[in-house]
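Notebook entry, structure prediction.
Reason for the run: the old model in the group folder had no record of what sequence produced it. Starting over properly, with the input documented here first.
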Amino acid sequence: MNIKVHYEEVANYVEKHYMIRPQLKRIDDKTLEVSCQLGRFIPPMVLQIHIEAMRKDVVCLSYECGTGMAMLIAGAVEHLDNKLPHGIEIKPEDKRINLFPDHVKEIRQIMEYAQLDGIQIHEDGLEILVSLR
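New structure, fully documented this time:
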């Protein structure tokens, strides 16, 4: 089973709820670039997310960004530490994110019936590959 998430859908959702429109762009098969313009005279904030490894029980991501963005991420993680869902580890010092789908309450019920087989980055969106158990 394939689940397709188009970049346009994500950008529309973020703009509607947070009043900022991100630009999402495929760099290669494993890398997605997310950028947003915060103001006319402020350079765009750019974050590249790379899929490092994936197993049925964990998705390992890394990210690359400028110093300013890294400081924002570190501050946000520190501020939201106890509010992040169980099963999501963000390590700003290593620029790594580990997602354990079976441990995230919002995903756990889905994972009872499906297993994650892959994530593919395409020109127009992400494709999440799952198979029924």
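Summary: The chain has one domain: 2-132.
The old model has been moved to the deprecated folder.
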